[in-house]
């Protein structure tokens, strides 16, 4: 009996679903509940299990194809014992197969045998290979996550009236704190997350999102840390950071980055954050203007820390380790003076951390 398998509702996203690879080849046997194919959404990469036991007879959607929920993707030849159960007829003995269940998806990395070092997903392995290969004549295809990021950031620039504030800060206290923590290596971003979390407590508007005729409370108290992994943008959320130490926040950032590197699907999921910190100082960038990640009210761009000449009030010139901060703000939520006070509070927290 032929069983037509359709793409299940993954219940994780409203975006399209892209087939990464077929785990079982045409003509091969498969057991019910055995992973049949691997798919990618904007939130995760996951395996879809076969709802029946039988043989994969036809593949209707190839690797790389975008499919929708309910679309026919494969035809399976079901064993006779299962056919009776599927059709509602009498079972062929006590060992007959149970009725087919709707196909389901399981979020998990690919098997160790198929995985590259650090257990990356097939999509990430393909991206790593593609990065070292010449670009095809038809261009470079974007992953779903890259297309989602592109759409959201384009929407942000088109619909959010951005304005930008820039200032510098003394990194002397941060550097001393990092040295005192050795041999533990604290993540630079941990200091900015903590400073923002402490400062934002006194600025209610930055804890809101624009909602037409009002400012609605934000859905989260988490501060996000932007991460670029395999040329895709992700945000690591740090929940309730004001209640944590720099050491605790640093550990969470490093754990989140490691989960992304290992291919953990949970790390790819989009979770709400109050404000995002994005740091290009490690890339030797002195300052830059980031784009707001909606529905957040602002985003903080961090430039590199470097020696700079500072004029003291008594006329002395000293060399001090300083960095640059750029705050991109949604003008519908905050005015320039209000945002300037918020940025000043962040600097105060950084310099006394």
What does this structure look like?
By secondary structure, this protein is an alpha+beta fold. It folds into 2 domains: 2-108, RNA polymerase II/Efflux pump adaptor protein, barrel-sandwich hybrid domain (OB fold (Dihydrolipoamide Acetyltransferase, E2P)); 145-351, Chloramphenicol acetyltransferase-like domain (Chloramphenicol Acetyltransferase, 2-Layer Sandwich). The chain has helices spanning 80-87, 122-132, 144-159, 172-181, 188-200, 246-262, 265-268, 336-351; strands at 2-6, 17-22, 29-30, 35-40, 45-49, 54-59, 66-67, 72-78, 105-106, 162-170, 208-211, 214-217, 223-229, 232-238, 275-279, 298-302, 306-311, 317-330. A hairpin with a 2-residue loop joins strand 11 (208-211) and strand 12 (214-217).
Summary tags:
OB fold (Dihydrolipoamide Acetyltransferase, E2P), single chain, 2 domains, Chloramphenicol Acetyltransferase, 27% helix, 353 residues, alpha+beta, five-stranded antiparallel β-sheet, seven-stranded mixed β-sheet
Q: What is the CATH third-level topology name of the largest domain?
A: Chloramphenicol Acetyltransferase
Number of self-contained structural domains: 2
Name the structural class: alpha+beta
N/C terminus separation: 69 Å
Residue share in β-strands: 25-35%
* Helix fraction bin: 25-40%
- The CATH homology group name of the largest domain: Chloramphenicol acetyltransferase-like domain
Question: Which architecture name of the largest domain does CATH use?
Answer: 2-Layer Sandwich
- The averaged pLDDT comes out at 84
Question: What is the string of SSEs from the N terminus onward?
Answer: EEEEEEEEHEHHEHHEEEEHHEEEEH
Largest sheet: 7 strands, mixed
Name of the level-1 CATH class of the largest domain:
Alpha Beta
Uncertain stretches: 82-98, 108-132
- The number of distinct helices, counting runs of at least 4 residues, comes to 8
Instruction: Describe the global form.
Output: elongated
Task: Write down the Rg.
Answer: 26 Å
